[in-house]
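dumping this here before i forget
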Amino acid sequence: MSEKERNRKKELGEEGEKAARKALERSGWEVLDQNWERLPLGELDLVGRKGNLVAFVEVRSASTHYLESPSMTVDVHKQSKLVRMAQLYLQEHRLWRVHTRFDVMAVHMGPDELRVEWIEDAFRPPPTARAAVYR
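structure:
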């Protein structure tokens, strides 16, 4: 991948996260964090809170239509990483008595459109991880 392609991909991701954040805030959510990172584990794109519910939001953006939805790229491996990151986030921020869920926001970007597809409760952690993050 060329430098130009990497820069365009980064710009696309940033545009997508900005659109996703706006959608979250318009729906009454407080954004607790954006791009919360703990290397080498990974990053949480958005962490939102509405009352006693904390949502860990994975943002996927695409400018092409070769996939039905960019959300299809959130595979089991990515889900596992997000669950580990969520556990760490909850511990570090001492969020003990909250309900949690994992959302995916697929941002479709075309020359004349910007559409956010919000999939609430997109996946659930496996039973062994559920006790730590999913209430």
